[in-house]
Amino acid sequence: MAACSGGGDKAANDGGAGAPKTGDANAPKKVHDIGFLNFAYTIFPDPNGKGVEAIKQKFGANIKAQFVLQSDYKEKLNVIMASGDMPDVVAIKDLDANYYKWAKQGAFLPLDDYIDKYATFKAVPKTIYDQFRVNGKIYSIPMYAPTYTFSGTIRQDWLDNLGLKMPTNYKELLDVAIAFTKNDPDKNGKNDTYGFALGQDISPTHAMGAYWSPAWYHKDKDGNFMPGLIGPGRKEVIETLAAAYKEGAVTKDFAVLNWAQTNKEFYSGKAGIFIGTPTGMVEEYYTGLLKVNPTAKVAPIPFFKAPDGSQGNPKGRGFFGLTTLSAKLKDDPDKVKKILEILDYGRQFIPVDQRNPQNQQFDWIMGGNGVGYEMVDGKAVPKAGQEANTPIQYMLQRHEFWKPWAPSDEANEYSKASYNSKEMQAFIATIEQMEKTYNKTPYDDPSYLVYSETQAAKGSELDKFVLGEQTKMISGQRPMADWDKVAEEWKSRGGAQIMKEINDGIKAAKK
């Protein structure tokens, strides 16, 4: 990782990977046309932007990019793949049945022989590549995502006002939730607060560690892994929420609240228990809370110690989306190398304290200081509306946000790099420190290694069933005594076959 860490090494500061600078007399003479299809959320750079020209000058590649709204992307991609006219490079948004089908049909170029030749490909852990191998082969390069998942957060100022300690188990958490509901924690003399912010589909999960999460953590009496949604840890969570609901300590109309509405319940100062994570938080929500209540203080809840002694969250998959190359490129090795060179260069990690105009690699990929970004209080901030001037938008992986392949979650320093206000930075820093201190046994979900046909076909429907029945349990419409009945019905509807396929796959992966 030394070559791609940017840790003061020459490659990171002069362009890296031997890539010539714009205007270099040694710039490539042959220009490769590279078709690129990607999904987008809010930013759709001009296909002929200055960033494209910069890549052409630097790498000898003419990127012909097409960006499709993410909600329409799956349909668009299905049509393109069915036509047999796949562009040179295609982003895959979801690891679903279509990905496996297309890989098995030979649509993608196998990349196994290239992995060790590029630092950022080699840096990807085997446990991540194993999640999307098809017939033992690697057909894609993963886009980076941290393994951080959500942890609990709580109004520390409310705890302090009521003389309560940070909860360390679900009994204590329930007691705190009830106190937040009945004891005027914000000291405004009104009965206008409660404990758990909760929305439809029992979101957030309020799992205080892998033991209580939806991950495939627990085993049944026969030693087979089972989904956390029907496991004993989840049962404790639902029992806690049901007891809290009876006391008015859960969002009353949670069953019909969408995610934005659930966030509002917490950040408007009504609820006292929610979730947080180092990356992806909406800064305006938190700063909005501080405007309503300047003395508000939100703190992360340390992961609970589970009955089996574990303490930590399940890891996320470690990637978001995949980059695939067309199998038609097998007869054009020079073009393949050019694509991978560009891809690798755009993924190289540059430490947060080196993301400035003095680092030539960073300055180039971000479009230049004062053009694609500007320095604000010592931090590089992308300039809205200038994405077309930014080469990284076109460098053959997910655009909108630069996602270099970090050597660790901690190296990203999200509290410094991703947020602007000092208040938000301080809040996120507490979550990062909590993760470092209390995430002692992070859990790798073994189901990530397995593709289940039945789960792909019926998984969403079965999850909806379980969540619906558990929603009834929380609101008192179905007794907790029916927990095992719900699990058995899940199995009879197709869950048993999912368990068989997942467990058979886990065993095969270990051989």
UniProtKB/TrEMBL annotation:
InterPro entries, per the entry: Bact_solute-bd_prot1, SBP
Highest taxon of source: Bacteria
Lipoprotein found in the keyword field: yes
Coiled-coil regions, chain positions: none
Annotated keywords: Cell membrane, Lipoprotein, Membrane, Palmitate, Signal
Region (Disordered): 1-25
SUPFAM superfamilies, sorted: Periplasmic binding protein-like II
Pfam families cross-referenced by the UniProt entry: SBP_bac_8
Protein name, as recorded: ABC transporter substrate-binding protein
